[in-house]
Amino acid sequence: MEAVMVVEVLSGHHRVRARHRFAAAGEVACCTVGRSVACDVVLDDPYVAAVHARITVDAEGHVTVTDLESVNGIEVGGLRRHGGEPAELDGGGVFRVGRSRLRVRTAREAVAPERADRSERWSRGAERNALAVGVVVSIAVTAFQVWTTTTQPRELSTALVTTLLALLGLAGLWIALWALASRVAFGESRWLRHATIVALAYAASTVMGGFLSVVNGSLGLHLPSAVEPVLFGITVAVALSAHLVNASPMRARFALALGVTIPAVIIAAVMWTQARGQNRSPSYVADRDHVVPPALVMRRGVSLERFTTEVTDLRPRADAKRAFVEREDPSPDDEDETD
Amino acid sequence: MSRAGPPGRAVVRGIAVLLLSVTCSAAQTRLPTDETDAVSQPVPSAASASITARLILDRVRPSVIQIKGFFGTNTAEAFHGSGFAVTDRGVFITNWHVVSDVVLYPEKYRLEYRTAAGKTGRVSVRTIDIRHDLALVDAEGFAPPPLRLRPNAAIGGERAYSVGFPLDVGLTITEGISNGRVEDSFEPRVHYSGALNAGMSGGPGLDGAGHVIGVNVAGYRASQLVSFLVPAEHAVRLLADAKKLALDVKKARDEVARQVRAHSDALLAALGPKLPTQNHHGYELPSKPAAFVECRAAGDPAPDKPISVERVACDAKSAIYLGRNLQPGGLSFQHELLSTRTLDPWRFAHGMQAAKGSDDVFASPRHLAPFACKQKNVELGGFTANTTICLRAYRKLDGIYDLYVRVVSRNGSRQGFLSSLIVTGVTPERGLAFAQTYLDAMQWKP
């Protein structure tokens, strides 16, 4: 049996500054900590004694720390100790000597399995292709949208250029922020990765939104207005999770949870506020269905007779809304003073 | 026509002309422009007639009272109007809109009278006729000789006078000309070409002999000396029915709702079972259904946009005043017609989507509950249209609703229309039946 430990000198951010390995063939391995070169672990800390403390580990991996009559003592588990009594280190293995933080790791420590490196799952070539597809689709869809909304031919080119430039600027800023985060976390910017995520997400959400409204209009589905924001939210969640995985060391599961939660909370809050406003406003009429060219209308409407029999349930529904509003007395602000 | 006494929603309702409620002004301090307007209006000079005016004023002076409304226990008035004696037992006639706040909120408002001589006392409401904007009130401890009513007597060109307490400046007589009955008004009105100002509502409109030909009601604020009287025969009828229709203060709201319903029923009945139509770009759409409905059409004469737009708006001007932001009994509809020569169907459809139409459905949440709507693609006469029908309930008036109908055509790739209809203060049965009449009238006849 061999007694082994690794003593790590930590920075204020818990980064490891130095690492010392001690092993002894016998029952116990030990080392000393202090400012003196005679020590096994040398610290440049003016609050540390020349020979400050001793760390021992047994074959089972139990670690004890003993203060060697220093002025400042040692701090274990939040308690400052002076002299004599060896203190046992708990699971984290961190203690303080002077103003330095040390961590002791032993063979008892469970080692997490190797994390699969997803960042290299796609070849660079495939990624470039995905980026190209995303960019081309995004530009095409945006150009189509600009063309749809611009009825004056002479305004088309200006509108196209300004919209695409604005979009490019925003996307660039977004990619730059994520690349910066990646650089901090991993030391590499991963421009290509973040650009691909943005391009694909934008392309997906615009294509889906357009497709949905055309289908809705041509089949006369009268889909609730919540469908579109929900689909948009899903796209954002996927994109955000992908960004997070590539810009921080967090696990995929956690990144997904965060990526879903943030857009879900924002979109739900906005939708709730809107729905509440609409439910309380006597001036709000149902949203208009999407208009599509007659050639795309796939389904005939109902007959007027059928529709007029269907609307007879409006009275109880209107009465129900009356009761709903009455329960909460409107504040004086509700009484508008506009003339 | 709506009175803007308590300044109404009329403005937002899109009525081009600002209407000034002649009488029951909410405290004048809130309407400074009324005063300046009133001052700037020229008064017809007629030196020869001034003797008649003086005689008439002397004669009616004892019988005309100022009716003041007070909020809570305040001694400063909230609004005021005029009234005049119609029986020798202290029964006075005034406008409904002078006393409406007291009827609807009896726990918040009270009424007092003040005679030209300065005597004051309590006033209580006896009977109301919302549709004709009349009310009978009792003045406690004051029973002057009544004025004589002269029904069916408004002759165009006859000299006429109006007496009341305008803007709190004391008993005033104005002189003008009666222009007889107004032809295109749903509610019967006498057109009086003379000044009527806020505070004169409920005062008598008189002929040269000092007989009452009508009750002061309203004036157009933006025009000069165009004023209206309620014909005296409605006052006579109200007086005859007074016993039968005695107002139960506790059930006043039910009575108000009942009268609004009766008004709307009469309005829709007057429009008939079938609406006339006019062809716009191939669509037969409802057009001016009765003489009293005012229709306006406008478009862009030199369109520089690929989609040209025409708008037709019709208004029955039949809304009745119940309070601020509460004027049911109206009916209006609008068509917005879009057409293009240059655009492809896809972009034209987008233009239809972006077209605003006129969703003029503003209402105060204090008085109305939100809409309940149903939206479907419906096969109308030869074309498909996206159709929405909505109802919203009045919060404190039972059995009346606002109906809203919106139609967006779906068949045209180069032309289309958006149409909307709003009928306020109607029963659901009558309202939905009228919605069907409205939709039935629409046809595709290129």
Question: How is the main sheet of chain A built?
Answer: 6 strands, antiparallel
Alpha carbon gyration radius of chain B: 24 Å
- Overall body shape of chain A: elongated
Instruction: Kindly report the spatial arrangement of strands forming the biggest sheet of chain A.
Output: 2-1-11-10-7-8
Give the % helix of chain A.
Answer: 40-55%
Sequence stretches where pLDDT stays below 50 over 5 or more residues of chain B:
1-47
| Class per helix and strand makeup of chain B | alpha+beta
Oligomer: heterodimer
| Helix content range of chain B | 10-25%
What is the number of E strands of chain A? 12
Largest sheet properties of chain B: 7 strands, antiparallel
Total number of helical segments of chain B?
7
Q: What characteristic shape of chain B results from the CA principal axes?
A: elongated
Structural class of the secondary structure composition of chain A?
alpha+beta
Order of helices and strands of chain A: EEEEEEEEEEEHHHHHEHH
SSE topology:
The complex is a heterodimer of chains A (339) and B (446).
Chain A: E1 3-10, E2 16-24, E3 28-34, E4 41-42, E5 53-58, E6 63-67, E7 74-76, E8 79-81, E9 87-88, E10 94-97, E11 100-106, H1 124-149, H2 153-186, H3 191-219, H4 227-247, H5 252-280, E12 302-303, H6 304-310, H7 314-327
Parallel strand pairs in A: 3-4
Antiparallel strand pairs in A: 1-2, 1-11, 3-5, 5-6, 6-9, 7-8, 7-10, 10-11
Chain B: E1 19-21, E2 25-26, H1 32-40, H2 50-60, E3 64-71, E4 77-85, E5 91-94, H3 96-104, E6 109-115, E7 120-129, E8 134-139, E9 158-164, E10 172-181, E11 190-193, E12 204-207, E13 212-220, E14 227-231, H4 232-240, H5 252-271, E15 277-280, E16 283-286, E17 294-299, E18 307-315, E19 331-340, H6 345-354, E20 372-380, E21 383-393, E22 401-409, E23 415-426, H7 428-440, E24 443-444
Antiparallel strand pairs in B: 1-13, 2-4, 3-4, 3-6, 4-5, 5-8, 6-7, 7-8, 9-10, 9-12, 10-11, 11-14, 12-13, 13-14, 15-16, 16-24, 17-18, 18-19, 19-23, 20-21, 21-22, 22-23
